[in-house]
């Protein structure tokens, strides 16, 4: 018993000595977090990636190109990261462009990995090993219809999106998480990305998937009370409208409903706007995507809204009815003009406002979708209304929208219209116009009471639809009903 106890003590002391000899207090090693610059010399580029797919399309009609593996001479492209998933507004993708400033090309890389910004931060140079990767292209065209001008085509002038990933059963898929380190190599270089200062009208294909800047912009007036993507109708992404002050052109702001700032209220002022320029999920229209809310510097309280009719805020409207049109008796387009309305396509196209019905309600409807008109501009102008016999006039009407992909309907009033739209003076009305949903139909919404008491004489109310059936154009369906003007 004593001998066994003695050996037990010796064993315990030996274990204690071994443990103490392995741990040296206050002498912990510091992990090496430095980045070793990869020994890579780029021999390709993002432009070359695009060119490879274009050549494949010309020779075979394919919209996918796969880079073959060459063990003795791999193909590498150099790029700079311009997207960040830190706020959840990008998901399992990197957007990269070929230069820090004045880029000539950008591309989207899809990867089966989250928290990419922890490794691939904005401004980080990376090297992309293309061997075994595939690039696909989409510009939102529809190869299944009868219009060849609508086909997806990487060689035409329609801005499209190039995406890099793995080919899986003929479909482009994410680069597997286990393969990312074989294709994406991080450089030690991190630089500031200088956004391209651009006008919306000057956007071309080369600008897709690059970082851009609008020097004077704001959230469109109808959106300033909304959140980024926290409204009830927002599905997957929220779409709001960015208004370019100099030109009054607009572009969509796309925000993920998973973004950490989705419920933030949109900024109300005017200023600079920087974002990644891309296209929506189906590549049908242009979108801008921000990395973080501070990319929107709308700090100037003086907005650049276009002038609207302003008759004050006093109460208006009354029991005298000057115009009351619910379109219930309108069965054909001929009935529209027979009832005193003007329905005209300014480009002499075939598309016009046309009657339609759902349930027991009739209304007028229009859409650029399938019209093959680019642009499509149609005016619906009311019969002449005499305001000299009443006071405190107010206008109301209802609108509904469907398959919403942008604003296409505006309302105006003119006191000097005599039949020629181009020579009349049109004053915009500050009306609530329906927005959403992106798929299917919404519900009719009221314009609100529009005070028109400061006008006199004979006037005309006009609804202007401007869209386009081109890829990237606005094709939203709009419906108009219950146009009513009253006074005392």
Gyration radius (Cα, Å) is 30 Å
Fraction in helix: under 10%
Total domains: 3
* CATH topology call of the largest domain: Jelly Rolls
CATH architecture of the largest domain: Sandwich
Morphology call: elongated
**Highest CATH level, the class of the largest domain:** Mainly Beta
Largest sheet, in brief, is:
9 strands, mixed
SS-based class: mainly beta
Strand content: 25-35%
Q: What is the mean pLDDT?
A: 90
Number of helices: 4
| Distance, first to last CA | 116 Å
Please explain how this structure is put together.
With about 500 residues, this protein is mostly beta strands. It has 3 domains: about 45-190, no CATH class; about 195-300, OB fold (Dihydrolipoamide Acetyltransferase, E2P) (Beta Barrel), CATH 2.40.50; about 320-485, Jelly Rolls (Sandwich), CATH 2.60.120.200. It has helices at about 1-20, 45-60, 180-185, 335-340, and strands at about 65, 75-80, 95, 105-110, 125-130, 135-140, 160-170, 170-175, 185-190, 195, 210-220, 235-245, 250-255, 270-280, 285-290, 295-300, 320-325, 340-345, 355-360, 360-365, 375-380, 385, 395-400, 410-415, 425-430, 445, 450, 460-465, 475-485. The strands form 4 sheets. Strands 1, 2, 3, 4, 5, 6, 7, 8 and 9 form a 9-stranded mixed β-sheet that branches. The longest helix is centred in the first third of the chain and has 21 residues, at about 1-20. The model is unreliable at about 1-5 and about 10-30 (pLDDT under 50).
């Amino acid at each position: 018993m004593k001998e066994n106890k003695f050996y037990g003590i010796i064993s315990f002391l030996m274990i204690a000595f071994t443990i103490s000899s392995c741990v040296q207090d206050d002498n912990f090693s510091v992990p090496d977090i430095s980045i070793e610059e990869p020994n890579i010399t780029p021999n390709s580029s993002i432009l070359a990636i695009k060119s490879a797919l274009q050549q494949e399309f010309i020779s075979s009609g394919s919209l996918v190109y796969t880079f073959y593996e060459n063990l003795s001479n791999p193909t590498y492209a150099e790029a700079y990261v311009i997207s960040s998933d830190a706020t959840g507004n990008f998901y399992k993708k990197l957007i990269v462009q070929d230069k820090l400033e004045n880029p000539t090309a950008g591309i989207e890389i899809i990867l089966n990995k989250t928290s990419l910004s922890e490794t691939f931060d904005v401004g980080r140079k990376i090297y992309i090993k293309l061997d075994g990767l595939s690039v696909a292209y989409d510009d939102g065209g529809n190869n299944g219809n009868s219009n060849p001008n609508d086909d997806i085509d990487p060689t035409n002038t329609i801005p499209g999106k190039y995406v890099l990933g793995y080919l899986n059963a003929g479909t482009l898929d994410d680069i597997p998480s286990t393969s990312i380190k074989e294709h994406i190599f991080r450089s030690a270089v991190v630089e500031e990305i200088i956004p391209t200062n651009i006008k919306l009208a000057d956007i071309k294909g080369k600008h897709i998937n690059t970082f851009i800047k609008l020097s004077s912009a704001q959230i469109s007036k109808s959106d300033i009370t909304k959140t980024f993507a926290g409204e009830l109708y927002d599905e997957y992404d929220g779409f709001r409208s960015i208004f370019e002050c100099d030109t009054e052109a607009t572009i969509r702001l796309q925000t993920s409903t998973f973004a950490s700032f989705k419920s933030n209220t949109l900024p109300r002022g005017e200023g600079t706007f920087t974002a990644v320029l891309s296209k929506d999920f189906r590549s049908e229209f242009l979108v801008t995507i921000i990395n973080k809310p501070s990319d929107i510097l709308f700090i100037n309280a003086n907005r650049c809204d276009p002038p609207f009719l302003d008759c004050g805020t006093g109460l208006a409207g009354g029991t005298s009815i000057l115009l009351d049109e619910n379109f219930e008796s309108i069965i054909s387009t001929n009935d529209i003009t027979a009832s005193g309305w003007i329905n005209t396509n300014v480009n002499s196209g075939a598309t016009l406002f046309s009657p339609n019905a759902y349930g027991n309600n009739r209304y007028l409807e229009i859409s650029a979708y399938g019209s093959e008109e680019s642009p499509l501009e149609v005016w619906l102008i009311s019969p002449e209304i005499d305001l000299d016999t009443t006071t405190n006039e107010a206008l109301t009407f209802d609108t509904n929208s469907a398959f919403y992909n942008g604003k296409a309907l505006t309302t105006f009033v003119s006191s000097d219209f005599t039949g020629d739209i181009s020579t009349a003076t049109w004053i915009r009305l500050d009306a609530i116009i329906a927005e959403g949903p992106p798929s299917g139909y919404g519900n009719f919404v009221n314009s609100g009471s529009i005070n028109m008491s400061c006008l006199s004489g004979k006037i005309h109310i006009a609804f202007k639809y401007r869209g386009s059936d081109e890829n990237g154009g606005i094709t939203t369906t709009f419906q108009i009903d219950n146009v009513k003007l009253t006074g005392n």
